[in-house]
Amino acid sequence: MSLLLEDARTRPELFAWYGAIRTDDLDQWLHKRELPIPQDLTALWRDTGGGDIFETETLLAPFGDPDKGDDVDGVNAMERSKGLPEGYLLFHTGLRQSAVRLSDGRYITFRPGSFEVEMEFPSLEAWYEGLIRNEYAARYGLTVARHRSPVGG
């Protein structure tokens, strides 16, 4: 089980998921967009549907609510109009904006107020542990896990 899902099981009040997505529905959504999304992110979307975590973080959802700004398509379209480069797909907003770099499947965060890459992570697990959990674990009494340093940050 991933650390993210383990934390959600341990402290469910901190995680408001949209709900699991049927594999066929998610596969159709991905096929229509022809996006090379890493398997760990598609697995998270399938298992949780995305949603809000901790007090300020949103994992954008393929079938999220556009009125709440939680949908992958709507948020990415809005941010592209502000300069988000092609080749990135935002999947998270909150402390930072986080995206998948589609050319290599790496998880990145942008510097606040820009689309300049600040940190890179090799997996969703490393991203969660190095960015999100690093910020919130002590505050919410989550057991400290082995630290993985981001690359290039």
Explained architecture:
The protein is α+β, with helices and mostly antiparallel strands and 153 residues long. Helices cover 33% and strands 19% of the residues. It has 5 helices and 7 strands. It has helices at 3-10, 23-33, 39-48, 72-80, 124-136; strands spanning 15-17, 51-53, 57-59, 88-93, 98-101, 106-110, 117-121. A 7-stranded antiparallel beta sheet has the order 1-2-3-4-5-6-7.
Q: What's a concise summary of this model?
A:
The protein has 5 helices and 7 strands, in the order αβααββαββββα. The protein has 153 residues and is α+β, with helices and mostly antiparallel strands.
List the helices and strands and how they pair.
Elements lengths: L2 H8 L4 E3 L5 H11 L5 H10 L2 E3 L3 E3 L12 H9 L7 E6 L4 E4 L4 E5 L6 E5 L2 H13 L17
Antiparallel strand pairs: 1-2, 2-3, 3-4, 4-5, 5-6, 6-7
What distinguishing features does this structure have?
153 residues; alpha+beta; SMI1/KNR4-like; seven-stranded antiparallel beta sheet; globular; disordered C terminus
CATH architecture: 3-Layer(aba) Sandwich
How do the helices and strands follow one another from N- to C-terminus? Answer: HEHHEEHEEEEH
Number of contiguous helices: 5
Measured as a percent range, the helix fraction is 25-40%
The first-to-last residue Cα distance is: 27 Å
Helix/strand-derived category reads alpha+beta
Strand order of the largest sheet: 1-2-3-4-5-6-7
Radius of gyration from the CA trace? 15 Å
What is the number of beta strands? 7
The main pleated sheet reads as: 7 strands, antiparallel
CATH class reads: Alpha Beta
